[in-house]
Design a protein that fits this description.
The protein contains 8 helices and 9 strands. The protein has 232 residues and is α/β, with parallel strands linked by helices. It has a 6-stranded parallel β-sheet. Strands 7-8-9 form a 3-stranded parallel β-sheet, sandwiched between helices. Helix 5 packs parallel to helix 6. The protein is elongated, with a radius of gyration of 22 Å. The N and C termini lie far apart (50 Å).
Amino acid sequence: MIIGCPKEVKVQEYRVGLTPANVQSYVEAGHTVYIEQGAGAEIGFADDAYQAAGAIITDKTTLFDKSDMIIKVKEPIECEYSYFRENQILYTYLHLAADKPLTDMLLERKIQSVAYETIKTPTGLPCLAPMSSIAGRLATLEAAKYIQKTFGGAGVLLSGTAGTPKAKVVILGAGVVGLNAAQVAMGIGADVTILDINAARLAYIDQIFGMRIKTLTSSRGNILSLLPEADV
């Protein structure tokens, strides 16, 4: 099979669909891999590294013309539609519920699409979980920044200091995002409360954090009682 990995063009998207190590695995399995010039440059994967792994560096038009399967990170945007040809295979995050034009294009050109966010295993959604982990951890770090007076916040330090109170962080939902947000907030030293409707999930939080994070059933009453005092 001929596999193509184009450079992402969506604004502020710097990731790449294949690493040099991925390319090497495909090549060793007998496939041909095309990488668009500069596809991994923004995150430290130079074209030379891809070539050393066995990839062919090319332009976007040649890549799409020759490839049986396209591997991306984000959903194609309008300026990319014209590159696709009928019956190609596409692996990427798609989120089609919010994008009718893209859905129509994929149907019209009979693109065999596999959306990462829909891949399921007995333990969950393996392609969404790492994205959710990043989102949760970044949420706490962004909160730590925007609660500073410089950025328009109340001027509260999440960790507090000796002799001062810690910031109160309230997290709604103990899924992958919430769990990772709680982990970072607790690590910083904040006073953390996490709420969820799943009692088993809250028990799990208690166990893995040694009851250092407060857990509450997510109800209207509990949420309303916490919000007036919450810093984040």
